[in-house]
Amino acid sequence: MGSKVRLGVIGLGAQGGAYADYLAEGKVTNMVLGAICDIDSVKKSVASEKFPSIPFYDNYIEMLESGAVDAIVTCVPHYLHPEMAIEAMKREIHALVEKPAGVYTKQVKEMNDFAATKPELTFGIMFNQRTNPLYQKLKSLIDSGEIGSIRRTNWMITTWWRPQGYYDQGAWRATWEGEGGGVLVNQAPHQIDLLQWICGMPKKVYSNVKYGFQRNIAVEDEVTALLDYGNGATGVFITCTHDLIGTDRFEILGDNGKIVVDDSKKITIKRLAKPESEMSATMSMQDVAKIFMGGNTEELFTEEVLEFESVWGEQHIAVLENFAANIIDGTPLIANGADGINGVALANAIHLSSWLDKEVELPIDEEVYLAELNKKIEAEKRNPIKS
After folding, report:
1. Which residues have C-beta within 8 Å of that of residue 26, sequence separation ≥ 6?
2. pLDDT at position 312 over 70
3. CA gap 207, 298 in Å, rounded
4. Of 117, 198, 293, 327, whose CA is between 20 and 30 Å from 95?
5. Is the pTM of this model over 0.85?
6. How far apart are CA 80 and CA 76, in angstroms?
């Protein structure tokens, strides 16, 4: 292979188009645009105008076998990510999958198992938020035990407002057959990944999910999930696509303090002077009364605020560069492709709990999930919401 990785972009939609632009403009170190693939003939004319020297394919297998690419990125409907990654790796081509890794854990597991047989190949996932300095800092704060053991996590992420027109753009959008879900598989996978990356996977999930609550769609647009981490710690994850004003607030409460992230831009760290259990055991009722009456809290906890710049766009480039670096010199991956299964497992558990109307344990029974998903697809075929 030459000194630069030749990337094949499969799917020239919004995301694939952005990657093709970054590469064509030379924004990604050690990576160039090798080829473009799309089944839509309109995209062929777009590509020939914008990227005249780049080969275009309407069949991704042909592209994989053309010798024009060293690696691919899958910017296609979610169901296709595992299949395309496997076909690429079969042909000794590196694979970078878009989020989510797939729709259900069974297909993601097949991809991960196959990737494990090809250790010489690079297998990554586009978890660009993991390159966000704010979330990297948050992870290091939690990992270092800065606020002690976690007692509770709360993330309300409702900044995903989407109008009906967004859903009406394509027949496959917001359908069980086309996307395999709504906000959990389309907008919120980054937060679902970050939640488990930073705080660990819950052991049980109980959810209240609304399907087509405020939009004329078959899939979920409103989610409240209760998480049980199995050690006494609990969590709540809330997301939706109908809150025009939107809230992004992530709180992590620990034995020794609390961390609050606002709008993915600001981290507030409140460190207790002593562990909370110690304060509870030793504080006199006079001291307690002072606190309740609006007394000075400085003796109880300190507060530190960290501000971060928004880094949209740069994050995707950072993942592409890291992927190329792993191929060229073995630089460790920010987001290993195998990690993608965790977020899919959590989203599947949230869906399954609502479908069965009961708490579910992780790992969920993937055969039960698939059977329930197929029921949704069949019902949708008989009675399509979007004509």
Report:
1. none
2. no
3. 38
4. 198
5. yes
6. 7
The answer, yes or no, to whether residue 299 has pLDDT greater than 90, is: no
Question: Taking a C-beta distance cutoff of 8 angstroms, is the pair 54, 12 a contact?
Answer: no
Tell me what the mean pLDDT of segment 136-156 comes to. Answer: 98
222 token code pair:
């409103």
Residues 218-246, mean pLDDT to the nearest whole number: 98
Closest CA to 181 of 158, 212, 214, 160: 212
Q: Which amino acid is residue 235, in one-letter code?
A: G
Neighbour-count burial of 61, counting CB atoms closer than 10 A to its CB (0-12 exposed, 13-18 middle, 19+ buried): middle
Q: What is the number of helices (H) and of strands (E) in the chain?
A: 13, 15
pLDDT at residue 298 in the model: 85
- Type and span of the H or E element at 304: strand 301-307
**Residue 310 pLDDT class (50, 70, 90 cuts):** confident
Question: What is the per-residue pLDDT for 387?
Answer: 55
Q: What CA–CA distances, in Å, run from 112 to 31, 101, 265?
A: 24, 10, 33
Residue 292 has what pLDDT?
82
Instruction: Name which of 32-46, 191-205, 299-313 the model is least confident about.
Output: 299-313
Q: What is the mean pLDDT of the chain?
A: 96
Q: How far is CA 252 from the centre of its chain?
A: 19
- Cα 238 from Cα 220, distance rounded (Å): 12
Sequence letter at residue 43: K
CA distance 153 to 199: 8
How far apart CA 249 and CA 306 sit, in angstroms, is 15
| Residue 115 near residue 89 (C-beta atoms within 8 A) | yes
CA-CA distance, 47 to 40, in Å (whole number)? Answer: 11
pLDDT band at 50 (very low <50, low <70, confident <90, very high): very high
Q: Tell me phi and psi for residue 290, to 5 degrees.
A: -60, -45
DSSP class of 183: T
Q: Report the C-alpha gap between 157 and 264 in whole angstroms.
A: 10
Tell me the one-letter amino acid at 125: I
Rounded CA separation 30/22 (Å):
12
DSSP, residue by residue, 76-138: S-TTHHHHHHHHHHHTT-EEEEPSSS-SSHHHHHHHHHHHHT-TTS-EEE--GGGG-HHHHHH
Of the candidates 201, 199, 194, 97, the residue with the CA atom closest to the CA atom of residue 152: 199
